Every structure is written in structure tokens, then in C-alpha cells.
Protein 1
Amino acid sequence: MYVLGIETSCDETGVAIYHSKDGLLSHHLYSQIELHAPYGGIVPELASRDHIRKLLPLIRETLAAADLSLEQLDGIAYTAGPGLIGALLVGASVGHGLAWSLKIPVAAIHHMEGHLLAPLMETHQLNPPFLALLISGGHTLLIQVTRLGDYQVLGESVDDAIGEAFDKVAKMLGLGYPGGPALEKLAQQGACDRFRFPRPMTDRPGLDFSFSGLKTFTMNTLAATAGSQQDKADIACAFQHAVADTLAIKCRRAIQQTGIRQLVAAGGVCANQAIRNRLGKVADQENARLFLPRHEFCTDNGAMIAFTGCLRLLAGQREGPVIQARARWNLEDLPPIPLQSGLLPPAKGVECCFGDAKKGTPK
Ligand code: KG4
Ligand code: ZN
């Protein structure tokens, strides 16, 4: 089964083709970073318009790279939410329109489920039950995965999402958009132990997160310095260290509470090497296995949507004619994926990836 995946939930147009037997055939990404950079953040209306401009050419390119024609597709998967509603509607309309004209099934995919299942593209060593830490620009979630599609939220941010905190702190430090990667780079020049940032909500039981206090703490710390480049690098490093530590403490707690010793960490913020390393340490200490997608599958991409769509279509799920687009969507509301064993598409690449993710585009 050839499945075309379409991702347009935010500021990245992603398209991929996943085959149920051969795995990922091609994936292309167009990032709108340059478009939004002058504004210091995403402008939703500009995002929608750019998806309209880029989506069809990107679909053509992705098909050509896989040496396929539209008529050879067996199904279409698109991100139906959560995300920017105008941006989502572009992928949803194109997805439904194509499926309608080609008379093939279409699946409406939850963006965060795409992130969550991304590591499965590369390993079959991971079987439910497992825990998943989903850290992105809009979400901070700690999930218990009982079966594929059966998700229970164990913890979430009570205020800012983690990526949002990275982006806002980066802005305070005078860094461009998107802030996460820029902050990580600056932190490499910093002394992490000069400032001690709090580890929010770790002094009480529970698995929820809070990041807005760290923003205020950063602002006050910066104001108390001369604001030199070294001051900023030291602050960036201390902030990153505090965030990584906080995530690690909550993940350890979740492993101990549930007794589940498999942990997936995914989403854009998981591209951060300090966080990857810190989670790796927790996995070692808790005798657990950590599964991390390679960098290109941490941040938004079409491959995770094509893959998740392939799983849901193989399990017989189909969308009706109504176009689905939801700005908000609870992962717990998803139906399970009743896959018979052996139906899981082949995994390519690393068995269990931790540390330096393999680079490059799988063929
Ligand atoms: O998953 P993603 O690409 O899009 C959403 O679904 O939100 O995540 C984007 C977020 C942004 O906030 C970005 O600053 C952050 O991930 N991010 C990072 C890094 N790379 C991306 N944060 C910290 N360190 C990074 N290396
Ligand atoms: Zn995302």
C-alpha cells in the first residue's frame, strides 16, 4: 500500500510516501522559517498562504523522487490537528480532494500521534506498553501507551509548552526565531553552573510540568547581569540544564510509578542534544530503553504522518467525506489501531536509537 502523507499544521510543509512493505520511499520538507523570522514568531495567515503555494509542487517532487504517479497511490493521510486552523485546512482540503478524485481512502491524523509513533519507523524493538514524552512547540505531554492508538495522558504542562518556553527565552536573549536551536547553540559556549535555575514542579508529587516561571527567572537573572554575550550563554546553558533535568525527573518518576521500562521521547524539542543525553542517563539508571527518532523525524515532517496514516489505513480506518481540521484535539480521544501482528510496516534503520542519531534520508 502506497500512502501519501501531508503535514501542514504549523510552519512546515511536509510530504512523504510510505509503503506498507518497503517503508519510507521519499520525504520532502519546506520550512517557512525565513518567512516568519522578521516577525519573531509564526504569523498564522502567512503560514496558510505559504502552504497553499508550496504543497502541490512538494507533492509532485515527492512522487517523482519515489518514481510514482498519483494514480499509483493507495491512500492519503493528512494532519487534521492540533495546529493552526488555516494551515491545517490547506493539507486537509488537498488530502480530501486528491483522495476523492483518485477514489482512494483518506485518514485524518493527529499530529502528536505522528510524533509519538515516529520512532517505530526505524525499530520493531518497541512494543506497547511504553511511555512517551512528547515535547514540541505546542505540547509537553507524558503519555502511557497501552496499545497503539490507546493513549493516557499522565502529565502535561499547566502553562507554556516547552518549545514555547525555549522560543521565548531565546527571544529574551536576543536570538532569532525559532529559538530552540539558536539557544542550544549559544548554550554550548556557556558555563552551566554559574546560575542555578529552578526545576519547576519537581518538589511535589505528580507528572505535570510548568515552564512559565523559568521565563520570569530568566528575565530576572538577565536583568541582574551586564547582559554580555558570556552572560547570555551562561543563562542559556543554565536554562537548558534546568529544563533537561526537569524532564528527566518526571520521566524517572513515570517509569517508577508505572513499572514500564520503555520510553519514547519525540517532538521538535527532542532535537536538543542536552535533553537527549539527559534522558539517556535516566534510561541507564532506571534500566529502561530509550527510543529517540533521528533529528529529522523529531521536528515536524511528512514521514511521521504518512507512517501513522499507513498504520491506520492498514487497520481499516477511513475518513468520511467531511474535511477534518481541529485546532485542539485530545490524544485520548483517538480510536485504537487494531493491527494484527505482522501488519506493521518494516522498520528501517537503527534498532534502538540513543545518543547520536543517524543522519541522512533513508531511501
Ligand atoms: O515538533 P515541532 O517541530 O513543531 C510543533 O509541533 O510544535 O517543534 C517545534 C519546537 C519549537 O519550539 C523549536 O524551538 C523547538 O521545537 N526546537 C528545539 C530544538 N529544535 C527545535 N528546542 C530546543 N532545542 C532544539 N535543538
Ligand atoms: Zn510537531
Note: The pocket of zinc ion (ligand 2) is lined by residues 111, 115, 136, 267-268, 300 (CB under 6 Å).
Protein 2
Amino acid sequence: MAHILLGVDVGGSSVKAGLVDVASGELTSELLSAPTPVPSTPDALMPVIAELVARLPVSTGPVGLCFPSVVKHGKVRTAANVASAWIGADGAALASRALERPVVFLNDADAAGIAEVRWGAGRGVPGPIVMLTLGTGIGSALFIEGRLYPNTELGHLEMRGMDAEKWASAHVRTALHLDWGAWCGRVNEYLARMEALLWPDLFILGGAVTEHFGEFAPLLRAEAEIRPARFTGQAGVIGAALAAARPAGSAGSAASAG
Ligand code: BGC
């Protein structure tokens, strides 16, 4: 079953794992999740990932693991929503040792975008596409002709004197008890900044909050079309597995076990 690969998505609040049919983009197992440990150091996170993976049916082949940081050549370079002990860590090598498998390690929003552009809301759209994940932070992934420009970090654009993700993420909505109107006002301001800089044809909005897209979509405004992610909170797991199915080097970075 070479086309069934394992995907893992490490987020600021939860870690998810599942098996993915990379020939169709569908999950073929339950989507398992566990809270992200606090503090989310490498030593605390690796056993959580390994335990989730051990609860899934056995799979072979490389594992795709996406992480909420800039990832260059397998190494974690930033840590906005995970423990700062990750900065400089070789995430691909650590995960590969813990899971005893080759691991393709990449940014979480890039993974979500890969899933959406291959099998979801961006399928067949030549672009330019801006994928945004609205969760603990704001992740971004840019695509043109289906190809990713990785590690774009547009959630850290400055707005109102702070990081945009501190102004408009889904976490900010719940923490400040914003109603859909107040939150969408913030998201619209953020989308307007994106449009002024990037002029996309399509915005794809992802993250678990987009399960409620029908409730807040009428309040969103942008010149470009806005579509909800097809895979909402599953996109990271699916995209990570898809990245693992590609030849090493095309998205993320692989490390071999051992
Ligand atoms: C991180 C990004 C990540 C995003 C979503 C941001 O704080 O800097 O790397 O993609 O959160 O998790």
C-alpha cells in the first residue's frame, strides 16, 4: 500500500496524526489528536508524536510532519507558538529518530496549502493563490501555477503595531470573545493588506474555524475570491503526507532514521 502515508501536524494547541491515501488526498484512518504539551520542547513533544503514531495502523514509507515554524533544510528556524528550545533543532532528524522512519519536515501552512492546491479548494486554479490558516497563529502559503513559495510567514506582518496573528487569528477571536462581525472586521483588514501587497486571484481560508465558514462568510470582504479550505483542520496532516510522497527536496526536507 505504497500510496498510504502517515501525516503528522504539530500545532500550537494540538498534535494530529492520520493515514492518508496520497493518490486521492483522503484520510484512510481516524484522525488522532493529543494536546500539545506545555512547554512544547523537543523532549516533551517527541513522545507525544510517537504515541499518536503507535496508535495508528502500521504504515510503511516516509512520514510527513508539519510544524508551526519556518523550516529550512529540516531545521526549525523560528518558534512563535512552540517552545523556543526548537530554534536551531534538526526537526527532521529528531522525528526520524523517534519514529524510526525517514521524515519529511515542513511548515504547517505550507502543508495545508499543498493539500488544498492538490486536492481541495485550490485544485485547478493556476493562481496566484494565498492560503491562510487561522488557528493559534496565522500561517500562510503562496502558490503560483500550483507551485509553492515556502516559509512565507505572512501572519507576522505588522498590523496595528503588532503581529497580524495577534490581531486576527482564530485564537484571538476566542480569547477576546469577539463575535463573527468583530473578528471578520479584523480578518478583512488583514486580507486588504494581503491584496495591496500580493494581488492574489484566490484566498483559501483554513484552520478549524473554517468549519463555521457558512456563518461568517457573508461578513468577509476582498476583491479576490475567498474559498473555505476543503480539509479545514485536517489539511496539515493530509498535506504533510502528500509532501512525504514527493521526491525529497521539492517541499520540506527529509532525514533518514538512524
Ligand atoms: C508561525 C508559522 C505558522 C503559523 C501557523 C505562526 O506563528 O510563525 O510558521 O505557519 O503560526 O501555525
Note: DSSP finds eight helices and 16 strands in the chain.
